[in-house]
DNA sequence: TATGAATGAGCCTTCATTCAT
DNA sequence: AATGAATGAAGGCTCATTCAT
């Protein structure tokens, strides 16, 4: 069998696994598919990663690691930058990670799938990646509320969820959105305008909430 | 084996499938599990529904039908009720459908799963259930923007997504939220306060957006 | 595929498993081999017996059950028959079980293998079959020692082992014996003379031991 | 990884293989287990011994060689020593070889396994080790029968088997014996008393048989 | 002499599905 | 209308073995 790809088997396996897992999910994806795509033997997965779950775990970790390195939530901003700018940076980087193109297209999909149907790998991810991001977002929300709310307050937590929810939505409902509004694009170039909308929507919300509360 | 449940096999199969599919997903769920839970024979599924996919499809349809009947997006409001009230009703019913308890607990979960990883059954669902809901939400958003935005404008579409995204978020990230904030409850009694937050957040956002736009 | 054997699949599976397991051992034997020999599908084993171990267990149980039914240790003798006769009956039935021919040829082999390399199935066998046999043999030994030794004494236990050991020996070392003494036959018709030797050897031993003890 | 054991790989491989093979059997034991225990690479086995079977064969040979060197059947007795003493020496050395402790614990186990389920390696073992031992034992039996029986007579052969069978029994049925009589110990210090029983039992048998024969 | 990496065959098991009744 | 039995196609995993260095 001709070896087309000259990288080592482990790398090719990761790449292939990324594509297959992100497309089919952990359970549906088969080791055989991954290996075929990677041009590797079935046993290679177990040699390098122990088992299917081990490969999946390694992959998830790399997905988060890579995503956060390529698009850090601060996007180069200083910690004391205006909260408005930090909000936009957070949202924009979030979307870029989720909707990333090319080689890393599967990162976001993989991350979303794991959040949705958690495997035992989730614990580590929450601890290492998600907790810091959550904290950062709650901080931004608290700063923008400007009414004395602390990052650890339930109020900040709820607002952080409102923001994160908007970021995930397009990604999670792509198929439906395509059908509802076929002209709506989610290519990389459109990500920025999408980020602007979410940031604006959230900013207005937070500012409005800091002025008054109203019941229904 | 005593037959405790006197409903016909088909009903019991649906009920069991609802629980199992919503818990494990289409692929991971097994026909055997479903039949065991329903107290039916393995072959019964194929007798009544043709095959596994047929059962899933029938179930999805019922899930939407039932969900929308129990918790209609209007929640009894007239079409010309104030937009604020319609917004809250929409959000509240959305959450109730998704986080519903007891027998219908699986409805929301099933719906979310299908949106996330669409099967061929999606087309029908979009056409029959989702399009009307989307239209209703865009209408609410347009009304609240109060700046001449029409329901079919991109602006209304984006805002509708912002609202729907918030509604789905808690549901889709339950595992992570449980870890980040173990005290955060999503029981039925908490759904209303959650709905209030989302409605308030969105209302403030829409009102704020109608006054000014700002760039970054 | 033509169905040559009209018995039900489960029976054919047992028969085939008996042959294969007794020939290759639990680990080496493959489910595929067994199914091929039984003219059944691979999945049939798991349908009828749960898994490979389940089939093995069922088989072992049947082997003991069948063996003890065909060749009961008492061989029809009353409980108060002379100990000499009971000894011969015990030895003879033991050998017949182990060296059985035809359809049940694998019974003895299987039993010996399990004793030698126990699997988790052993517990049940010891409790149900082996303990009563051991007790019976210790009783015979105690009776023949005729020096007040009780069946539960170590002395009786040691003698019982001496007898059982002789019975197992030919069976366990068949390959070596064939090489050492090619004329030595272990066909069914020779079993009786072999039983006579072992019974005589043991009888002389027990009688001799009851008269005197000597050290070395 | 620090090399604790400074012997060459080949030695360490033999040692490890001894432990693993004797514990799990040829088929169940894995090359990986052996290599891990030996602190060697998986490929080392094939480098030094050709393949798994080659290692097993080399090991068997060493087991017999070592065992017979450590515990020779004569135990230092002259060939013309009293038959009683030669009998005890034979039995005692046999048991020591089989139940040996420490580094050589696996020798006996390995030997027994090979006798029970012969591999192609058996021929050589019979020729080189077993035949002389068998001859020696038949000679002892013939001497003790003291009725003109020759070592090559069937009568002597049967008696030799009766003796050898007793020696193997404890070893082959250790698991069952542990369950039947948990207090029965087979530690090294108990071997001598066990040997005394077998020698006494056999001696009485042979003496008794030389006086009279009885049928059943 | 020795090794990390890779391979292909094969194993047990599971699953959706169908068959005969 | 319903079922127990049986099937064939995979799937994950393990193993002895070989390759390239």
Give the number of helices of chain A: 10
Could you say what the CATH architecture of the domain at 59-209 in chain A is?
Orthogonal Bundle
CATH structural fold name of the domain at 59-209 in chain A: Tetracycline Repressor, domain 2
CATH homologous superfamily (4th level) name of the domain at 59-209 in chain A: Tetracycline Repressor, domain 2
pLDDT < 50 runs, ≥5 residues of chain A: none
CATH C-level class of the domain at 59-209 in chain A is Mainly Alpha
Number of beta-strand segments of chain A: 0
Order of helices and strands of chain A: HHHHHHHHHH
Query: What structural class do helix, strand and pairing data of chain A support?
Result: mainly alpha
Can you offer a commentary on this structure?
4 copies of one chain form a homotetramer. The first copy, chain A, is mainly alpha-helical and 216 residues long. Chain A has a domain at 59-209: Tetracycline Repressor, domain 2. Helices cover 73% and strands 0% of the residues of chain A. The first copy, chain A, has helices at residues 9-28, 31-38, 42-49, 52-70, 83-99, 105-116, 122-145, 154-172, 174-180, 188-211. Chains in contact: A-B, C-D. Chains A and B meet through helix 1, helix 5, helix 6, helix 7 and helix 8 of A and helix 1, helix 5, helix 6, helix 7 and helix 8 of B. The structure holds a DNA duplex (21 and 21 nucleotides).
């Amino acid at each position: 069998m001709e070896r087309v790809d000259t990288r080592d088997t482990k790398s090719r396996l990761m790449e292939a696994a990324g594509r297959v897992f992100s497309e089919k999910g952990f359970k549906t994806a088969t080791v055989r598919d991954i290996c075929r795509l990677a041009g590797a033997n079935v046993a290679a997965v177990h040699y390098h990663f122990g088992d299917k779950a081990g490969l999946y775990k390694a992959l998830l970790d790399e997905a988060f690691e890579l995503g956060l390195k390529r698009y850090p939530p601060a996007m180069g901003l200083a910690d004391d930058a205006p909260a408005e700018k930090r909000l936009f940076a957070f949202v924009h980087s979030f979307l870029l990670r989720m909707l990333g193109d090319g080689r890393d297209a599967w990162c976001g999909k993989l991350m979303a799938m794991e959040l949705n149907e958690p495997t035992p790998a989730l614990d580590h991810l929450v601890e290492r990646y998600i907790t810091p991001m959550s904290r950062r977002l709650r901080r931004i929300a608290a700063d923008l509320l400007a009414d004395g709310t602390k990052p650890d307050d339930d109020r900040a937590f709820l607002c952080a969820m409102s923001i994160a929810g908007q970021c995930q939505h397009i990604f999670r409902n792509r198929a439906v959105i395509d059908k509802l509004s076929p002209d709506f694009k989610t290519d990389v170039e459109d990500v920025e305008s999408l980020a602007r909308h979410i940031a604006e929507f959230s900013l207005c919300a937070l500012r409005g909430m800091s002025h008054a509360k109203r019941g229904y």
